[in-house]
Design a protein that fits this description.
20 strands; about 35% helix; alpha/beta; UDP-N-acetylmuramoyl-L-alanine:D-glutamate ligase; Protein-Tyrosine Phosphatase, Chain A; globular; about 450 residues; 3 domains
Length: about 450
Amino acid sequence: MSTLWSLSQVSSRIGGELLGAGTVVPASLSLDTRTLEPGACFVALRAERDGHAFCAQAAAKGAVALLVDDPQPVDLPQLVVPDTLRALQTWGRERLAAARPAAVFGVTGSVGKTSTKELLAAATGAWKTPGNRNNTLGLPEALATLPEALGAAVLEMGMSTPGEIRRLTEIAPPDFGVVTVIGTAHLENFASGQQGIAEAKGELVAGLRKGGAWAYLATDTWCRWIAAQPWAAHARPLPLGDGEAYGWEDAESLGAAGERFRLRTPKGTVPVHLKLRGPHQVRNAALAGAIAIHAGFRPEAVALGMGTVEPEAGRGRLHPFRGGGWLLDESYNASPDSILACAESLRALRGGEAVAVLGSMRELGAGAADLHETTGRALKAAGITRLWAFGEFARELAQGFGQGASGFPDFEALRDDPSGLSSIPDGARILVKGSRYWRAERAVDWLLAR
């Protein structure tokens, strides 16, 4: 039977002073009263807003304990520590060390982290980090109540600045890793450009346990660069591609029904049928399947598991329109690489005009305007016939795309202008994508309501 820790057990591992009943066993941790579930321990972080101001609200919503740096006038057991962030991370690290599964996988990359995490977890029957808990707050929050007796765990590891993935691997050192691709996301935070991003993503490889292995695309120049670094020498690189032991072949798009391919391994090939759509999902699945098989999981079970993964809202969910046409909801986030990959997926669907509704991208640095213009040009070359763009770089996206593009300063203008969303032709295949800041899901909601 899986047992979680009591406050007394937590206190002995993270230090600090325990006030109140040490027998209380939190079912989860929560950093935000808006999403707090009854039975949670509320962690009061000092950030832009001081979490200590919300302790009474946490109690009212059903919290059973508090993790604080100063005793609070709330009738709940409290763990009082010098630094709640450090204590949170220690709690997650200690829980993983105590309940460590047989195989721990780490997944990072500029594009495709979450899809690859889902595919890898399904391939191995693993526990996985829920939602987007992939940073130095969310990962330890999830690990703090990690179940016992797991065969595997898949941990998504994201970053926006150098050192974040290094800290994540200190909290949760993986046995195996995947780097999906080194792209341009968060470029503005790296003075040395893509090499800086490669170094930051490479922190996952540097943090692998000795003798571990990591999978990557052989065509990715910066992943090959990581593999050649002295700090990566302790881990075995597994490149995927033509001429390599691992790869994929006979890939075929089935349109709305997903993708089909054969996964090539040193043990032979295995057929895979994905419900996820787009050639980029074939690459993600090949990476997930390769590292799973290398870790000792049966190829047939790996293929079967990956075939059960359904697209999530904002991450490739497909909506048919009653009058014909499709809406491909990729609204969760956007980068130049992911936009073009999703455009390729859209083009594989049967239907009318292939069009795109795009919110601007963020964190692209001083070259953001040029990257938007280049992306607009590449979309036109990829066969997208019309573009509706909104946000701070809508003009550059539209300029790059040329004839058939319209730019709007914000979502409200896109929604209300007669040349905006209401002018999208019936029967069209529509891609919706944009950075989190621009909340492109609003366009999805509007189009579905229409």
